[in-house]
Every structure is written in structure tokens, then in C-alpha cells.
Design goal:
- The chain is 38% helix and 16% strand.
- The protein has one domain (3-347): TIM Barrel.
- It contains 12 helices and 13 strands.
- Strand 8 (166-169), helix 6 (184-202) and strand 9 (210-214) form a beta-alpha-beta unit.
- The protein has 351 residues and is α/β, with parallel strands linked by helices.
């Protein structure tokens, strides 16, 4: 066990949000792990216009204010998504709002987009990008915004030219009413205004990719509507998916009744099935990113075989420490080679 994993084990004895804040501070101070090997060539892949050294990405929520994106890339992630950031700073929901479900290898959170706002995020992101690595921005809306769609446009305009991609997050369950933007009419308006702003901003230049992050709590009809809307508006990928409001019957932790979004191992099977349904609905029209319960190379491989061109994770690091990142990369490369795939792309959607 590395010194970083030992530190991670010690942090698990502290309240969850305190441990997270200390982790961010340590990483900012340069105390995080550094991957000591080059990425295996079999892991190189493409997502939209992004050439990823490996498909394993940091999911939004870990680095809300773009403090340590470059450090997470140095730790082994092929790409790191910062945020969610809202135009104005907001404190989020009352504490406690983050709960570890230790026996379930899961987390429930009801953070509520707590972040320092666009001005701080932009300054930090500029600094992180100067350090190297693929770093993106996940943008959201303030809880009390009178026009939430305009908040997304504001975020896009304020950060334009800095992140390697944008993710439009309409899937958090912890901002009341936010998931209503996944509905057909609201989604059409949102994507229309986002793409109108994109066209104005990029002019004759190539635009960074724009992704949309959706919830796992969707039925087949909603999946079809979202897929069609995403394609008709020219999005570059869908991220499947965010935390879940569902509570599997076999959860063991006493925290299982807490309100908020569930992440970690218990959501793996369902989120992968939702990913598979999106892959079928899209029929090759758009790339997908698989998120939800990934804790091993085999898990990442299952997401890829279900239709994901890349994956993201966060919760598993809470329980397995930062060495998990390079371990997943090694295991994924072994899975690909064992089945005769020359690269990630060859395995996408191969049931």
C-alpha cells in the first residue's frame, strides 16, 4: 500500500466533507501521487475531438473549483472534469450532506452545487491548464436563478477558450427542479440556446466539444427523446450518468435512508444498463461516456462493451485510494488484450 493510500485510509476516519477538503488541500500543495509509467498504447482513444491518452476520466464533483485538475491528470487520469460551477458562488445545501455507506462501497450526497462561482473557477482553470493535461469544465445553474438556461449560456461564455471541453449538467438531483431540463421541450430550448451561443463564440474557429450529462433515473421513452435531441443539436457526447435517487433493496449502511444522489458500486448494474439503452437508441450517432460504480478495470471494460468510448469515476477513490487510477488502467489494458482488441474503440459496444 502506497503512502497515499495510507493517507486515504486515515482520512476515512474523518467526516466525509472534512476529508474531501483536506484531500483537495494536499493535492494543491503537491502532495498527491504521480503515475510513474506512460499510458499503455492500447488505451489511447478518441472522444469527440479529444485524443485521450487513456479513457479513464475524473468525474465532476471531486474538484468543484478547478483547484487540482492537472494534479489529477498527473495521478493517472487521462482526462479530468472540474466543477460543477455556477455563475454565482453558492454554499449548497445544509450540512451534513455527504455520507459514506461503507459496507456498500457507496456514497449519498446532497451537496447542491456548492462552489466558489465562475470568477474563481476561471482563474483556477487558467492556472491548471498552464500545467498541462486534458481538463474540462462542468457547468450548472444557480439554485435561485430566474432563468436557469441563461446560467448555462453565461458559464459557456465566461469560460470559452479555457477548458478542453464543456459538460452541461442537467442531472443533479440536489437542485430542485434541475432535472426538469431533461424534459423534451425544456431540453430543446436549452440545447438550442447553448448551440446558438457556441456558434457565436467560435465563429470560424473549431469549437471545443460539448457534452451533456444526464440522470440514470430515465425510462426508455425519455432515453429516446434525449438521444434524438442531442443528435439534432450537434452535441459531441452524452455522459451516462449522474447519481441516482433509487435505493437498491440490498443496501446495508444505516445511511441508506439519507436523501440525495447515490453513487458507487450499487449503481453499477443499472447505470450500465441505461448506458446500453442509450447506445442502442443512438445507433452510432454519438459518443457516450460511461459513469456509475466503476471500481476496477473489469468495470471500466464492461462500460466500454456496453457502448462507452470513455469512462469517468469518483466515488471508488473514497474507498480504494488514489492508486486505484493506475490499477484500473492496467487491468483495462489486460482486458482489451485478452479479448484481442487492438484499442478501446474496437471494443466499444461489442457485446
Amino acid at each position: 500500500m502506497s503512502i497515499f493510500d495510507l493517507a486515504s485510509t486515515a482520512l476515512r476516519h474523518l467526516p466525509a466533507e472534512t476529508a474531501h477538503s483536506l484531500t483537495i488541500s494536499a493535492m494543491k500543495a503537491g502532495l498527491g501521487p504521480i503515475a510513474d509509467e506512460m499510458d499503455d498504447p492500447v488505451l489511447q482513444t478518441r472522444l469527440g475531438s479529444l485524443d485521450l491518452p487513456n479513457p479513464i476520466g475524473l468525474a465532476a464533483g471531486f474538484d468543484k473549483n478547478a483547484d487540482i485538475g492537472a494534479a489529477m491528470v498527473r495521478a493517472g487520469f487521462g482526462w479530468a472534469e472540474c466543477g460543477t460551477v455556477t455563475p454565482l458562488p453558492q454554499s449548497g445545501n445544509p450540512r451534513p450532506r455527504l455520507f459514506r455507506l461503507h459496507p456498500d462501497k457507496a456514497v449519498i450526497n446532497r451537496m447542491g452545487f456548492n462552489n466558489a462561482g465562475l470568477a474563481v473557477f476561471k482563474r483556477n482553470l487558467r492556472d491548471q491548464k498552464a500545467r498541462g493535461g486534458l481538463i474540462g469544465a462542468n457547468i450548472g445553474a444557480n439554485k435561485d436563478a430566474t432563468d436557469r438556461i441563461e446560467d448555462y449560456v453565461t458559464g459557456l461564455k465566461a469560460l470559452w477558450g479555457l477548458p478542453d471541453w464543456f459538460t452541461i449538467n442537467i442531472s443533479s438531483p440536489n437542485t430542485p427542479g434541475l432535472r426538469e431540463l431533461q424534459g423534451r421541450d425544456a431540453l430543446q430550448e436549452l440545447l438550442g440556446r447553448i448551440m446558438e451561443a457556441r456558434a457565436e463564440l467560435c465563429g470560424d474557429q473549431v469549437s471545443p466539444p460539448i457534452f451533456l450529462k444526464v440522470a440514470p433515473d430515465l425510462d426508455d421513452a425519455q432515453i429516446g427523446e434525449i438521444s434524438d435531441a442531442a443528435c439534432s443539436h450537434g452535441l459531441d457526447a452524452l455522459i451516462i450518468s449522474n447519481t441516482s435517487l433509487a435505493r437498491p433493496d440490498d443496501l446495508q449502511s444505516p445511511h441508506k435512508t439519507q436523501s440525495g444522489g447515490l453513487s458507487g458500486s450499487p449503481v453499477f448494474e443499472h447505470s450500465t444498463e441505461v448506458l446500453r439503452t442509450f447506445h442502442s437508441a443512438l445507433n452510432g450517432r454519438m459518443a457516450l461516456v460511461g459513469v456509475g460504480g466503476i471500481a476496477s478495470g473489469a468495470d471500466a471494460y464492461a462500460k466500454i462493451r456496453a457502448g462507452a468510448s470513455a469512462v469517468q469515476l469518483y466515488t471508488a477513490m473514497v474507498f480504494h485510494g488514489p492508486s486505484l487510477i493506475t490499477r484500473i488502467a492496467t487491468e483495462l489494458a489486460e482486458c482489451l488484450r485478452a479479448d484481442g482488441f487492438a484499442n478501446v474503440a474496437d471494443a466499444v459496444g461489442r457485446v
